[in-house]
């Protein structure tokens, strides 16, 4: 099996990223927008003297709704480009895996380490939650958490690949997976405990905030699941012409 060129990988990754981004934007437009509307109403009622705080709505809701789709399209485009480079780098070391397994597994692990696991520690909040004075503090810990989450995932993946080599054939599959899961779970739990929580108060009803966070997490999960399946499907399709060429060449040579 020959390696795919970076150009073909980028094309597949970007197409799938844009489609997944559009899908998640539609998901949030239908399900999350009512939650945002309600939180804005509560926020407005809590801020009875906007002029005193100099906090006004700089962007109207129609522009924000349009920005929802644009934002997720950019999200899909960005991760499509980043993931294509990652896939191009690791496709040769993982050539013993099937194309679908390699593509989907790598995408799901990426989504978990950069989006889903960090969300569990620092979940999204609806409008009206978050002190502007702590934004740099929060962003610093959030980005550091993502970096360490990626490092832990890479470590566990490297250990899994090491244990899959012939020299580890004496170990049972259960013991191998126990080692891999332990190598991930222990540092992941320590990371989760060690990092400080979000310092900002949440002046919104708990049920509203909980529903917003559930839908936000579901949107991230939907994006990365759609991305993993879509990219893997395109990767398998891209292999078929190459396989056909190899078969024709083998027949002619015979």
What does this structure look like?
The chain is 77% helix and 0% strand. It starts with 5 loop residues before the first helix and ends with a helix. It has 254 residues and is an all-alpha fold. It has a domain at 1-98 and 202-254. It contains eight helices and no strands. Helix 1 (6-31) packs antiparallel against helix 4, helix 1 runs antiparallel to helix 8 and helix 6 (135-163) runs antiparallel to helix 7 (173-194).
Tell me briefly what this model is.
The protein has 254 residues and is mainly α.
What's the order of the H and E elements? HHHHHHHH
Strand content: under 5%
> Helix- and strand-based class?
mainly alpha
Mean pLDDT rating? 85
Number of helices: 8
How would a textbook summarize the main sheet? Answer: none
Q: Helical amount among residues, as a percent range?
A: over 70%
Q: Runs with pLDDT <50, length 5+?
A: 49-58, 244-252
* Rg from Cα: 22 Å
Task: Report the strand count.
Answer: 0
Which geometry do the CA atoms define? globular
Gap between N and C termini: 20 Å
Set down the secondary structure blueprint:
Elements: H1 6-31, H2 33-46, H3 50-53, H4 61-90, H5 99-121, H6 135-163, H7 173-194, H8 206-253
Helix pairs in contact: 1-4, 1-8, 5-6, 5-8, 6-7
